[in-house]
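A brief tutorial aside. Many learners find it easier to grasp structure tokens once they have seen a single protein encoded end to end. The record that follows does exactly this for Calcium-binding protein. Read the sequence first, then the structure, and try to relate runs of similar tokens to stretches of the chain.
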Amino acid sequence: MWAPATAVGESCQGRPATIVGTGADIQGTDGDDVIVTGTSTVAYTHAGNDLVCVTPSAADQIWVDTGPGDDVVDASASTARRTAADLGLGVDRYLGSPGLDSVSANGADDTFDAAGGSNGMTLEITGPAGSVTGSYRGSGVDFIGVRSTDRDVTVELDGQVVVDGVPAAEITGFHFAHVQAPGAVLRGNSDDNYLAVRGCSLRIDGAGGDDRIISNPYAGDDTLIFECETKSRLSGGQGDDKIRGRGGHDRLAGNRGNDLLQGGADADLMLGGAGNDELEGGASRDLLRGNGGNDTLKGNPGPDTLLGNRGRDRADGHQGRDRCAAELDRHCER
């Protein structure tokens, strides 16, 4: 329900509003609308190049669906706990609220500016990189998800989103990331990151900070399914990292710091680094190398190979016929 703005006298970014919300829902037109949400909690702008201002209200949640067109959603004055937007086709811009923003975009050519709070940004990549470079700026503790069923994607936090080798967007200020694509590469930043990938050929490179790194995390409602054999290369950085490979043939490397490495169901290679690391194999035939530091190696089921290398290391083969080389070992058959 809405009223013509000329009867209300509202404006949005200095432009006279053409629609002001007075009920639960707003229905825009196929023309260029200037919408003030008012007391409405849902706004469908439909086609056209639309401008939407989310105004202060007592609502807990506000949702905006912009439809096709080059649209702008200004949520900077929103007082809702959560403001959500689905940005359709077109080159769109979203100005964040002081609260929680949840935004989904079609492609990587839009602009997202967070204003604070805990925010989530999801990019649906359905085609090649376009002529317009997108820009996505989080507030430092935010989540970005990038999904594509048929394009290879590289995401570098505080860097770029690259689609099939072509830069598509610039990103900064994100703390958590999840990339789903046939070929997915994800690189962290200096924060304590949560980094996850799903697909066929997967790679994660941690940086500074104490990172949590995982391939093929547990499935949810937004999980893409890829019919392929998964191979992952997961590497920590300078901090104390937790790295887990789940399904597929994984290569896990701790690098610096005191790291925890956990294998999955298939045969994995796990490499500790310079710190005091804990390496734990999965259900198959795994190779664990402690390298520097005083490490703990655990075999679990399957015929595993546990090699402590430098430092004073502990090896426990558990089930299976295992080969161990460490200062202290148990359940090792050879």
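Self-check: The CA atoms of residues 238 and 256 lie 5 Å apart. If you spotted this yourself, you are ready for the next section.
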